[in-house]
Design goal:
12 helices, 8 strands
Length: 288
């Protein structure tokens, strides 16, 4: 039977907890070498990367993180704004004893990787922006993302398995890749006491930063991309909801040292839907 944990067979991985700024943070980690931090998207968790950890652990010390407020990490009652994630990343690297790290993020994680690199370029080797960028979506994309916000709020407010499946349907091009095991994993996370309310606030804050004109001027604009002073891979997909390939290409034109690859058979989770292609292209960039 297919299981997401089968993808970790043969890898000496472990689940760890670190105190980061006083908050317990969960990591699935494996391998030895330079640190590679894998960051999920809004409302996500470390299991988003179970199909990628083993391949990357051959070259890196991989940390697939539950970001603060997410997964099984601590979820303090604080404002989950963009400054928080930058401070969180700095505290995380200090806690891990990592002077510099490779950082790869999906969706919100991609934005966090970019914001952190702008703020602390001396702590970063390279970054991957996976289905997320710092340019706001066009009008059609914004409408699609607003619909996602409504769906996500329903899933957070009443975290049934079916509500979670409908929320996660947006992540994939092929619905068959949403296995019962994956839905159960997120169902258990969302049903931790008090967690659904925090995740609802996180989702609203994340998408508001992307869609609100005032917040866009601070966190999502072309000028920011020009300040990323490290090599960047923009890894996109043909079916990424709300954010077109053209948006990704424009982002790469604005990044001083950027390149673009597009996967053809996935939506918002290429690392899950096309893991072989993702792992190959991802490693080619990180290792060159």
């Amino acid at each position: 039977m297919s299981s997401m944990w089968n993808d970790l067979q043969g890898a000496p991985f472990k689940q760890s907890y670190y105190k980061v700024g006083g908050v317990p943070i969960r990591a699935i980690e494996a391998g030895e070498g330079p640190p590679l931090i894998l960051l999920h998207g809004t409302g996500g968790h470390a299991e988003a990367y179970v199909k990628n950890i083993r391949a990357h652990a051959a070259h890196f010390h991989v940390y697939a993180i539950d970001m603060i407020g997410h997964g099984y990490s601590g979820a303090p009652d604080i404002a989950y704004d963009m400054e928080l994630y930058v401070h969180f990343m700095l505290d995380l690297l200090n806690t891990l004893g990592a002077e510099r790290a490779f950082i790869s993020g999906e969706s919100l994680g991609a934005s966090v990787a970019a914001w952190f690199t702008i703020a602390h370029p001396e702590r970063v080797e390279k970054i991957v922006m996976n289905t997320g960028t710092l340019l706001p979506p066009d009008e059609a994309g914004a409408a699609e993302l607003r619909e996602l916000l409504e769906r996500s709020q329903r899933a957070a407010g009443a975290p049934t398995r079916e509500a979670i499946r409908q929320r996660m349907r947006w992540l994939v091009h092929d619905e068959a890749s949403l296995t019962d095991e994956l839905i159960e994993s997120r169902f258990r996370i969302y049903n931790q006491p008090g967690r659904a309310a925090i995740l609802g606030r996180i989702t609203e804050a994340s998408l508001s930063a992307l869609l609100d004109p005032d917040l866009q001027r601070r966190w999502y604009n072309a000028e920011l991309l020009g300040r990323i002073a490290r090599p960047v891979l923009v890894l996109w997909t043909r079916y990424n909801p709300g954010q077109s390939v053209e948006l990704a290409a424009e982002s790469v034109r604005l990044i001083p040292d950027g390149e673009l690859v597009v996967l053809e058979n996935s939506a918002h989770w290429p690392q899950w839907e096309e893991p072989e292609a993702f792992n190959r292209l991802h490693l080619e960039f990180l290792l060159k």
